Amino acid sequence: MCGILAIFGCTDNSHAKRSRIIELSRRLRHRGPDWSGLHSHEDCYLAHQRLAIVDPTSGDQPLYNEDKTIVVAVNGEIYNHKELREKLKSHQFRTESDCEVIAHLYEEYGENFIDMLDGMFSFVLLDTRDKSFIAARDAIGITPLYMGWGLDGSIWFSSEMKALSDDCERFVSFLPGHIYSSKNGGLRRWYNPPWFSETIPSTPYDPLVLRKAFEKAVVKRLMTDVPFGVLLSGGLDSSLVAAVANRYLADTEAGRQWGSQLHTFCVGLKGSPDLKAAREVADYLGTRHHEFHFTVQEGIDALEEVIYHVETYDVTSIRASTPMFLMSRKIKSLGVKMVLSGEGSDEIFGGYLYFHKAPNKEEFHQETCRKINALHLYDCLRANKSTSAWGVEARVPFLDKEFINIAMNIDPEWKMIRPDLRRIEKWVVRNAFDDDQNPYLPKHILYRQKEQFSDGVGYSWIDGLKDHANSQVSDSMLANASFVYPHNTPTTKEGYYYRTIFERYFPKAAARETVPGGPSVACSTAKAVEWDAAWSKNLDPSGRAALGVHEAAYEVKET
């Protein structure tokens, strides 16, 4: 991951302003510690902090077209850049960077090239010929991007809120799958898949089609010129990523460059479910496994840093971000700069345990659509920012654009949890990789019950967080929460505690409005809480709040 900061229409283009932009850009240096770049043109500035993954020697940014009239700063990876270069043979490329194609695609196709990109990205592009500019974000919002407005009429874009929150009067999270065009004066959606309309699909389930699409998604993400690995919790999703990467690594350029033994990484409290399951998967696959431990106190001590980096006060995001933040620091200390991770599967296939209570396939499918559309505010934000805090890039194969379109086009009747047919959550994925002749994983791992990351690192982690919050927040503080925090009022002492930390770093109203709210059980949307009357008495984002479903569920609370 890299960090980008761009400002257009500054009334002050003095040396002092340039120094201020450099200062603000440094707030993103954790994302890109390898190089800093800045391009200025009259009242326009594009700053970049680089994490070098592809072409480390010559791919410094900003990047340009042949005559440097087009300038682009990119955060992300374009996996099909070699295929796109074949369409741009009349153009001269300066580097081997995968992101350079964006400048030339704009030159060739204007603003209508975004859907040609296969990857995760957010970028800002300046056309110096007429001082027009565009900004765009990938289909799902895997990479973060914010947009702000200054009192002087300037428009700002930044990978993280912290680089623009002081200087912008208002700022928002840039919508995934959208492009901003200065020529057209606003945002428009460039990503319009069939599932986005929430029309119920009817394509029959084909396990081989699904398997091949996922294998392709994993292999294309092995595009790297630096050491890498896989985050392995021992659950279904990360285990499948590791299994597929391990199976095909030797045949890739990355395997030839860095060796065919895959590195895997896991974090947890000693004795946690994830550590045990991950070790078993790693032994089965024969990976070079790295197991990291942390204590509840170490996690609590990191909370302020985590909230500063992840830029949220959402309870489940902070619970899961903290162990990922701690693990990323250990991973970076080993010299690893890129990891594959399993985010996105639960949203696409209805893997959260509350999906057991979906009343019909229509509501099941509509909930998956809602969950995917909100990923940029939750799991994508958490996975990206908690790893980028230490200069590590997380890639997510389940959120491959082609794979999502195939998976979301399956008749949701096949995704429904049907105990009478022995179909547990995410059965369509499990079944697709259930190969007796050439197994990917042991059966009991392939059919392990869903465990949310913040639960799987050790149940005492969440219990410890709640105990700590209870010691910091009094009953009267929580009782008056609606007066202190009228927007997204915290309903628990844990939520109140996180909110106080967030407000210290990001005190503006615009900052708190970037964080979603509403009731949730086991990571559900507010709409899905209606599926079970008992859930409204047990609102908690932990998977153990899925009463009657999770094997270690909380006890039912009395009214």
TrEMBL record:
Gene Ontology terms, MF aspect: asparagine synthase (glutamine-hydrolyzing) activity; ATP binding
Pfam families noted in UniProt: Asn_synthase, GATase_7
Residues reported to bind L-glutamine: D98
CDD domains: Asn_synthase_B_C, AsnB
Site entry: Important for beta-aspartyl-AMP intermediate formation: E343
GO biological process, one term: asparagine biosynthetic process
Binding positions (ATP): L231, V267, S341, G342
Enzyme Commission number(s) of this protein: 6.3.5.4
Pathway as given in its UniProt record: Amino-acid biosynthesis; L-asparagine biosynthesis
Keyword match Nuclease: no
Positions of the Glutamine amidotransferase type-2 domain: 2-185
Keywords: Amino-acid biosynthesis, Asparagine biosynthesis, ATP-binding, Glutamine amidotransferase, Ligase, Nucleotide-binding
NCBIfam families the record matches: asn_synth_AEB (TIGR01536), PRK09431.1 (NF006949)
Protein name, entry field: Asparagine synthetase [glutamine-hydrolyzing]
Organism listed in the record: Solanum stoloniferum
